[in-house]
């Protein structure tokens, strides 16, 4: 019988495999990052920002709900099974994006993509946390998010480049067929479940159990709820950047290839930096990492309204990526600090439910403000909310 050990080194092969799989999960998001707003305007003639951003709204709501149930089901169904189911939902997505005859089909594709991301990304990050135990949890999350978001950035660049050379459809979406197929095969053949690692860690844990993981993570527990609101605002501003940045760049007369590069800077810096910031969250006060990360994001967002050239947008992308990298692995590491191993999956699922609901709220809020008051007003509004969230962390989190 296999001996269960906790630690990054002790579980190196499984950990490395899950890093590769999460890169494919991130690649599925990268397919849309730079070119879907262009597809909406060029092929479907959608001018309303609210209607255009509907694909992000449906994605965010779907992913948020699935995140919650992934956390609830992780112990009963097992992490590997959830990962496999996630890949099955990913398989039709690139074909829908290639052949969609109307925008409603694109929205349907994003519902399936939201299910894929909620199951696959959540399961992959939970399994890495399970494998390493409590010593290098921040590093584990940092490596996971590095792989996922670096892949988002690289694929956003690739799809922008392919779209400029060969058109918005179908060639950029062929990448997704490969990501989903390889991800499913690797999971089926080589991934092992990690529930036994959770049991082993729980034997040594002294963290008190929560009365209700959902309500404590959402409202009652001061630190958990402060972290959760910041997660929601973080993805609210990411939803704004996802939908508005390509449109803003189009109004500045950048080419599709340039838009691909500029939309890739932010997630690429975000992904790369988490190799460092994940480990920082194991060493330094998580509260201050979250505070400064949210404040840095707020400054970068507001700066978008004054940017005009390629260099300025590149520098803003770097600042946004660094700010998000400070908070993203720290969120999950901090949530894990306040929850027992047996309740961790549900608490993480609750956090990820609210965090990814931020995509939908951000896209909807951004679209409404942009249609009524203009893109600049929506940018300033989201930047202000992000700054406010930083101070909630400062005054509410222990």
UniProtKB/TrEMBL annotation:
Subcellular location per the Swiss-Prot or TrEMBL entry: Cell membrane
Record key words, sorted: Cell membrane, Membrane, Transmembrane, Transmembrane helix, Transport
CDD domains named in the record: MFS_MdtG_SLC18_like (cd17325)
Membrane topology: Multi-pass membrane protein
Keyword Transport found: yes
GO terms for cellular component: plasma membrane
GO MF assignments: transmembrane transporter activity
Residues annotated as domain Major facilitator superfamily (MFS) profile: 15-398
Stated name of the protein: MFS transporter
């Amino acid at each position: 019988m296999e001996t269960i050990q906790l630690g990054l080194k002790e579980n190196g092969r499984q950990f490395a495999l899950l890093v590769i799989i999460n890169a494919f999960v991130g690649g599925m998001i990268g397919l849309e990052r730079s070119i879907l707003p262009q597809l909406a305007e060029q092929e479907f003639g959608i001018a309303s920002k609210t209607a255009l951003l509907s694909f992000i709204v449906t994605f965010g709501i779907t992913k948020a709900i699935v995140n919650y149930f992934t956390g609830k089901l992780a112990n009963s169904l097992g992490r590997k099974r959830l990962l496999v189911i996630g890949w099955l939902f990913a398989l039709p997505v690139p074909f829908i994006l290639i052949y969609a005859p109307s925008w409603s089909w694109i929205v349907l594709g994003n519902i399936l993509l939201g299910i894929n991301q909620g199951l696959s990304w959540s399961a992959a990050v939970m399994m890495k946390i399970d494998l390493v135990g409590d010593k290098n949890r921040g590093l584990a999350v940092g490596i996971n998010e590095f792989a996922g978001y670096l892949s988002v950035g690289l694929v956003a660049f690739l799809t922008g480049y392919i779209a400029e050379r060969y058109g918005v459809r179908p060639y950029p979406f062929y990448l997704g067929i490969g990501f989903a197929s390889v991800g499913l095969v690797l999971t089926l053949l080589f991934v092992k479940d990690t529930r036994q690692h959770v049991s082993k860690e729980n034997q040594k844990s002294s963290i008190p159990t929560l009365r209700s993981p959902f309500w404590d993570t959402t409202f009652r527990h001061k630190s958990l709820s402060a972290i959760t609101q910041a997660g929601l605002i973080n993805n609210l501003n990411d939803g704004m950047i996802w939908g508005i940045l390509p449109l803003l760049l189009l109004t500045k007369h950048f080419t599709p290839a340039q838009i691909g590069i500029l939309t890739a800077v932010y997630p690429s810096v975000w992904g790369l930096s988490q190799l460092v910031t994940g480990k920082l969250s194991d060493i330094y006060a998580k509260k201050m990492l979250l505070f400064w990360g949210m404040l840095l994001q707020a400054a970068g967002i507001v700066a978008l309204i004054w940017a005009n050239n390629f260099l300025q947008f590149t520098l803003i992308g770097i600042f946004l990526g660094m700010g998000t990298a400070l908070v993203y692995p720290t969120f999950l590491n901090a949530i894990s600090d306040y929850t027992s191993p047996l309740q961790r999956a549900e608490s993480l699922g609750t956090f990820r439910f609210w965090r990814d609901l931020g995509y939908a709220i951000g896209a909807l809020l951004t679209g409404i403000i942009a249609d009524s008051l203009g893109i600049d007003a929506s940018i300033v509004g989201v930047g202000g909310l992000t700054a406010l969230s930083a101070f909630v962390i400062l005054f509410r989190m222990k």
